[in-house]
Specification:
With about 170 residues, this protein is mostly helical. The chain has nine helices and no strands.
Length: about 170
């Protein structure tokens, strides 16, 4: 009876895209490339997701991953950190950090984050947000690189051990 169906993990019910067959978890674990390439791709995606460049995230992730020979799929997966729940916090945080670094904050009402209001603030405002986003993204990108590299290497070592045990028996 080797064809028994394994129960889905708890998170599969809450987030079907993560846990089901062909979900993000399985796709991530099945990525081809070296642990370095996959980790670098994830780090690029996480870094880009924290910058206020939402209309360009895909282009930036693919372009930087191509230049650095990182996994493009992993970069796109990492960029999923930017989503409707996280973007307001990222944008507000990047503005606050950038304004502190530039030392000339531009006043605006964070509760009225409409695009036309942000655009009307001009290039100085955008420069503050970009600066803050870049600085804000460095730490998470570095953490993501090392955590992903370790995870990919550990999963592959485990898979190799399982394969070796199957072949030996």
């Amino acid at each position: 009876m080797g064809s028994e169906k394994k129960p889905s993990p708890w998170y599969a019910k809450l987030f079907p895209a993560l846990g089901g067959p062909g979900g993000l978890k399985q796709k991530f674990l099945a990525l081809s490339g070296t642990p370095h390439s996959i980790a670098l791709g994830m780090a690029i995606g996480v870094f880009i997701s924290m910058t206020p460049t939402i209309p360009l995230h895909t282009i930036l992730c693919l372009g930087i991953a191509f230049v650095l020979r990182a996994s493009k799929v992993a970069a796109l997966m990492g960029s999923m950190l930017a989503n409707p729940l996280t973007l307001p916090e990222f944008y507000f945080g990047s503005y606050k950090l950038g304004a502190a670094l530039w030392k000339h904050p531009i006043q605006w009402d964070a509760h009225q984050m409409e695009i036309h209001e942000l655009v009307s603030k001009g290039w100085e405002f955008f420069a503050e947000m970009i600066t803050g986003g870049v600085v804000m993204g460095i730490g998470p990108a570095i953490f993501t690189y090392f955590a992903t590299r370790w995870l990919v290497a550990a999963v592959r070592r485990n898979q190799k051990a399982v394969d070796d045990q199957r072949n030996a028996g």
